[in-house]
Amino acid sequence: MKIAVAKEIEVCERRVALNPDTVAKLIKQGLEVSVETGAGERSYFSDSAYEAAGATIISDTAKLWGEADILLKVSPPQERENGGSEVELLKEGAVLISFLNPLGNPVVAQELANRQITSFSMEMIPRTTRAQSMDALSSQASLAGYKAVLIAAAALPKYFPMLTTAAGTIAPAKVFIMGAGVAGLQAIATARRLGAVVEAFDIRPAVKEEVQSLGAKFVEVKLEEETTAAGGYAKEISEASKQRTQEVVAEHVKNADVVITTAQVPGRKAPRLVTEEMVAQMKPGSVIVDLAADQGGNCACTEAGKDIVWNGVTIIGPINLPSSMPIHASQLYSKNLTSLVQLLVKDKALQVDFADDIVNAACITHAGEIRNQRVRDALQALSTQIGTH
User: How many helices (DSSP H) and strands (DSSP E) are in the chain?
Assistant: First the structure.
């Protein structure tokens, strides 16, 4: 069984699918691991470190991809500089495990199905206790929440903690976190460690205790509809509920020194939580960090990948924050991948058991078909949209 680790070609991607420690574990289980030359370079893992772990270093990209039984990546397959997609490098019947963004870009799923590739999307790992060790969305979101607070603290023209000095007392910064998923909870914890007074909002009332356990005040909005989707994620709500939510949170946004937004809906545009009117009411010097920037942003003023100043408020729209911490991001992601590989490979042979809830949920394509109904629906919607234009 040949497992290959590809070098990421996306410019902003610094993570690597496996680090040397997890490579060594897989090799001890009798698997053959090949790593593309320089795959770990931007994560500060050298080729020599992989060789010391027992991996074979391969410089020929086509050879690495073409001979792999299982190819491991971080970002979805990209278009190559010399033309064509990375998908074309895989041999028919191979397995690809990566973030695939299948709901946001279902065309990739169709390309994989056409090549007879069995693919597993790390975004689709179910949110269950048994699957926790494979939950890459959570491991990477935690990094994003942590880094978002550090970015905000660096941009804020104030201290975060309360300080008593000979020149007087400095009041602590007020931080408002919107969304109390994994990223939001880590942001709360980090902001509290830095000494800020923290409030947090989420449409799911079930997260109230988690927010309070971290020392933050929970801002509650009572909505007369279900707000939690399958797997514990936030559900898209009605326009009436969105309006009610904005009315409640507007005052908290206005009073905050820092607002960090984390709300995302898989495969859909991010919900608009902070309007231009809210930003206009914020104090000059305040900071917004929008973790949903690459999905359209939770803030109406966000520009993905840019830091802008709007009416005296700095609005930061970072993209792929986990990649800015590639050592630990790769360490965590590689453990997620390794856990999934160990589930799929028994006695050095691939065993795709669709009776297993994790395998069934994460498998996007198999035997020339798109297996996941949500991805099929997304592809159909995209085709209809293109047809109407």
Answer: 12, 19
The tens digit of pLDDT for each residue in 209-248 reads: 999 999 999 998 876 655 555 555 555 666 776 777 788 8
Q: What is the radius of gyration, based on Cα positions, of the chain?
A: 22
Closest by alpha carbon to 3, among 340, 229, 248? 340
Which residue type sits at 207? Answer: V
Structure tokens at 374: 């949500």
Task: Give pLDDT tens digits for 84-98.
Answer: 889 999 999 999 999
Instruction: Give, as one character, the DSSP assignment of residue 323.
Output: G
Largest CA distance in the chain: 72
Q: What b/e string do you get for 333-358 counting C-beta neighbours within 10 Å, with b at 16 or more?
A: bbbbbbbbbebbbeeeeeeeeeeeeb
Tokens in use for 377? 């629906």
Q: Strands 197-201, 217-219: parallel, antiparallel or unpaired by DSSP?
A: parallel
In order, the DSSP letters of 203-255 are S-GGGHHHHHHTT-EEE----SS--B-GGGPBPP--HHHHHHHHHHHHHHHHH
Sheet containing strand 217-219, edge to edge, reads 217-219, 197-201, 174-178, 258-261, 287-290, 313-316, 307-310
Burial class (CB in 10 A: 0-12, 13-18, 19+), 174: buried
The total of other beta-carbon atoms located within 10 Å of residue 267's CB is: 18
Sequence-ordered alpha helix ranges (H) in the chain: 20-28, 47-52, 61-67, 106-114, 136-155, 182-193, 208-213, 239-255, 276-281, 326-344, 357-362, 373-388
Q: What is the pTM of this model?
A: 0.92
Residue 313: its pLDDT value, please? 98
Instruction: Name 14's Cβ contacts closer than 8 Å, sequence gap at least 6.
Output: 8, 42, 43, 323, 324, 326, 329
* Structure token pair of residue 331: 């360490």
CA distance 240 to 203: 13
Question: Active-site residues: which are they?
Answer: 127, 132, 135, 138, 233
Amino acid at 53: A
Q: Which of 91, 150, 143, 101 is nearest to 122 (CA)?
A: 101
DSSP 325: S
Contact between 118 and 352 under an 8 Å Cβ cutoff? The reply is yes
